[in-house]
């Protein structure tokens, strides 16, 4: 009797440990929580000209703090723009209506994420609202193309020569680049 | 001409072997539902192949994870992206190293035990004695061992992966100074449920393959001391080759 008890105890512990490990793998190493574990949230939409390689599940952050995730990316045929649905944690319910959404890159070649910058309005975004001010993804190829075009146009031009090593600098500068690209147009 | 005939002979021999293995598998599957009625037998086999393999699996997982941590850090640091260490280690472990190394260790630890146990039962006429008493040895002895292995393998692989991820975290975060937050968040952002599923499917298939090879070799072992030894050796060799071959097939199918 004693032997069969230790045996069953060992089997039970092993199976429990195994399922705990499976549970850990599915919930802790992936971005998918269990449905009943997801915190209260509300959805916002934003339209972008180009989302680059933004993916469902990419983080949405504000001042560098993750406040939600991208849950859906769709294409609107009426105005040829990408429609992105952002699921924001209900804890962060006071985002001004004139806030703007931009797509940034994590690191030089990292994944894309959406950064929200707060506006100054007194009214706040609610469920199903749309963010009107958006800035598209920074596409490395476009920037290189522009730099090369500028380079061949005027070799004496100082800013163009300055921008030439653009693909090299590290993360901190990468986020600032889209604006630079916008200006050179 | 003679060489050609020998080649033909060995070809038909191996086909015949494959056929008999598959026939044996079908017999095991047909007998499985009735064997599930006596779950205490299966539970005992889960203990033998699973719980007793736990120590070697956990130790190996820890060291494999730690090596991944060092090697991954060394490589990623050249590109200035050592934060991706968590992602690299987790994907490597969950999809490949977890199932494959676990299956190889399982073949060495539990597969050999199964094969030699069944081989000795055959050699000491215990299996014939059961047949004399109208007890079906397949159902009473072989199927519980087979099912125990099939159930134990995915659990062992999951434990291996989790310990491995913590091993990589230990080296990467504690020793090399990678930020713990980005280690985990990059992992969460890039590992998908499909990756985890691929690992589980792989380890289930490896579980069937390893257990089948072990019980087949043991059950049909030549009933001599030498025959039992040979069955044990063949179990490890065949399992290792079959696991790596299946791994390629499954990976190709998933991509």
Overview of this structure, please?
In chain A, 22% of the residues are buried. The C terminus of chain A is likely disordered. An eight-stranded mixed β-sheet of chain A has the order 7-1-4-3-2-6-5-8, with no helix packed on it. The longest helix of chain A is centred in the first third of the chain and has 27 residues. In chain A, a hairpin with a 4-residue loop joins strand 3 and strand 4. Chain A starts with a helix and ends with a helix. The radius of gyration of chain A is 23 Å and the shape is elongated. Chain A has 185 residues and is of the alpha/beta class. Chain A contains five helices and eight strands. Chain A has three domains: 34 residues; 97 residues, Elongation Factor Tu (Ef-tu), domain 3 (Beta Barrel); 45 residues, no CATH class. Chain B has 255 residues and is an all-alpha fold. Chain B has one domain. Helix content of chain B is 88%, strand content 0%. Chain B has nine helices and no strands. The longest helix of chain B is centred in the middle third of the chain and has 39 residues. Chain B starts with a helix and ends with a helix. The mean pLDDT of chain B is 91. Classes of the chains: A alpha/beta (185), B mainly alpha (255). Chains A and B meet through helix 1 of A and helix 2, helix 6, helix 7 and helix 8 of B.
């Amino acid at each position: 009797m004693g032997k069969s008890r230790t045996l069953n105890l060992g089997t039970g512990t092993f199976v429990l440990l195994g399922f705990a490990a499976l549970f850990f793998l599915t919930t802790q190493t992936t971005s998918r929580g269990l449905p009943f574990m997801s915190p209260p949230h509300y959805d916002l939409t934003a339209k972008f000209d180009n989302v680059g390689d933004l993916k469902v599940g990419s983080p949405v952050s504000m001042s560098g703090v993750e406040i939600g995730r991208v849950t859906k990316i769709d294409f609107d045929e009426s105005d040829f723009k990408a429609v992105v649905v952002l699921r924001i944690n209900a804890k962060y319910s006071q985002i001004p209506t004139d806030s703007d959404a931009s797509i940034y890159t994590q690191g030089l070649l990292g994944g894309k994420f959406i950064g929200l910058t707060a506006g100054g309005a007194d009214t706040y975004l609610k469920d199903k609202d749309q963010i009107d001010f958006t800035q598209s993804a920074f596409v490395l190829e476009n920037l290189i193309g522009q730099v090369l075009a500028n380079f061949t146009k005027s070799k004496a031009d100082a800013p163009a020569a300055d921008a030439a090593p653009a693909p090299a600098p590290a993360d901190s500068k990468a986020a600032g680049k889209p604006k630079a690209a916008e200006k050179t147009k | 001409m003679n060489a050609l005939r020998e080649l033909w002979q060995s070809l038909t021999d191996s086909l015949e072997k494959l056929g008999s293995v598959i026939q044996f598998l079908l017999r095991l599957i047909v007998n499985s539902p009735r064997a599930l009625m006596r779950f205490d037998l299966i539970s005992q086999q889960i203990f033998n192949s699973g719980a007793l393999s736990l120590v070697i699996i956990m130790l190996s997982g820890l060291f494999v994870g730690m090596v991944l941590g060092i090697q991954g850090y060394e490589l990623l640091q050249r590109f200035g992206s050592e934060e991706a260490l968590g992602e690299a280690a987790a994907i490597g472990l969950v999809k490949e190293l977890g199932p494959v190394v676990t299956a190889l260790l399982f073949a060495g630890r539990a597969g050999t035990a199964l094969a030699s146990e069944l081989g000795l039962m055959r050699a000491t006429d215990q299996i014939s004695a059961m047949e004399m008493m109208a007890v079906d040895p397949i159902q009473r002895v072989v199927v519980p061992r087979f099912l125990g292995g099939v159930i134990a393998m995915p659990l062992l692989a999951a434990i291996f992966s989790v310990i491995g991820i913590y091993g990589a975290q230990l080296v990467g975060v504690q020793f090399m100074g990678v930020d713990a937050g980005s280690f985990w968040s990059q992992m969460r952002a890039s590992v998908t449920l499909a990756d985890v599923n691929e690992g589980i499917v792989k380890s289930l298939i490896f579980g069937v393959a390893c257990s089948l090879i072990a019980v087949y070799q043991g059950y049909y072992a030549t009933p001599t001391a030498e025959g039992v030894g040979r069955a044990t050796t063949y179990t490890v060799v065949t399992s290792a080759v079959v696991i790596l071959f299946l791994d390629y097939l499954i990976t190709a199918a998933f991509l």
